[in-house]
Amino acid sequence: MANLLLTERCVRACPYCFAKEQMADTNPSDMLPWENLLYVADFFQLSDEKHISLLGGEPTLHPHFVDFVLYLLRRRFHVTVFTSGIVRDAMLDEMQESLAGVNPEQFSMVCNLNEPALTTPKQTVRLRKFLSVLGHLVSPGFNIYKPDFDLEFLFELINQFGLRRSLRLGLAHPIPQQPNEHLRLDDLAAMAERLLSYVPLFREYKVAPGLDCGFPLCIFSDQQLGLLYRVNKNGLTFGCGPAIDIGPDLSVWPCFPLSRFHRRSLYEFNHLREIGQYYQEIHRKVRIEEGGIFRKCDDCPERETGMCIGGCVSHGLSKFAQEPRVRLDEVYL
């Protein structure tokens, strides 16, 4: 599965955002053109990939957003849209008319929600209007960038607007050589403790928390893991691997935290599998230089068996950038 950015413009300036640097440098007219969408759709079809995720920035800022979605649906792709839910009225009206009745088995959205303190009153009004119209297609998402995060407001939104009862939880990782707010390694244990404090609410509201890539297994005790497994019907994974992001200009990179790392062009590849193999090999070489985010990762039995990959490679790459260039060439930006 890979992600296609319709635009790198956004309606928010989140302190943790993986794409902060891209958004800041983007030309306001930088939008995915139709010919690039057609090329990506053909590329995915030849790769036998039936699922495509549309991202930004904020993808609904693209003037052809609805037309793009409808085109991909007609080609029998399963489409997932990652959005802030802060949508202009005209675009929301178009989405309601064309997408509200789409088969939820073929089309879904993940709404990345921020704590209320990071959302202006005007943004809150637009978000709530979006959820009232399309909430039945929406799974909530939340990015953790500090150890004292708050999830209570999410359960209220899930209950009020009938959102899907699965919560995507992401960790904000460091962007090598770029400033962003993210969890330090010393914060991870406190983050895990905080997350487990919400288990009663996960149970009460029947919400399944899903962990996105980069969570290291060892920050959770055996008891905490047991509690997480009991509220997560789909199981838990502790991986870190290339997600494959494709920009509006068809540039390719492994994931948002590594948006400047070995960036290539989609035209250089013939198949999604080739892109995955290319970045998997680079990840492997990074792991040779730095087994995981903790020193103990080198001798970890869970890492040896593949149960945990050792946390996000962005931590190691940030460390390498501050050292003399004595490592494998592939681990540098």
Largest sheet: 10 strands, mixed
Count of DSSP strands: 10
Number of helices: 12
Strand order of the largest sheet: 7-6-5-4-3-2-1-8-9-10
**CATH class wording:** Alpha Beta
Structural class: alpha/beta
Mass-distribution shape: globular
Q: What order do the SSEs take from the amino end to the carboxyl end, as H and E?
A: EHHEHEHEHEHEHHEHEEEHHH
Low-confidence stretches: none
- In the CATH hierarchy, the third-tier topology is known as TIM Barrel
Query: Between the first and last Cα atoms, what is the distance in angstroms?
Result: 24 Å
Rg measurement, Å: 20 Å
- Averaged pLDDT: 91
Could you describe the 3D structure shown?
The relative contact order is 0.12. The radius of gyration is 20 Å and the shape is globular. The mean pLDDT is 91. The protein is of the alpha/beta class and 333 residues long. Strands 7-6-5-4-3-2-1-8-9-10 form a ten-stranded mixed sheet, with helices on one face. It has helices spanning 20-25, 34-46, 65-74, 89-99, 121-134, 152-161, 188-196, 199-205, 222-231, 272-289, 301-305, 314-320; strands at residues 2-5, 51-55, 78-83, 107-112, 138-144, 166-171, 208-211, 245-246, 251-253, 264-265. It has one domain (2-331): Aldolase class I (TIM Barrel), CATH 3.20.20.70. Helix content is 36%, strand content 14%. Helix 4 runs parallel beside helix 5.
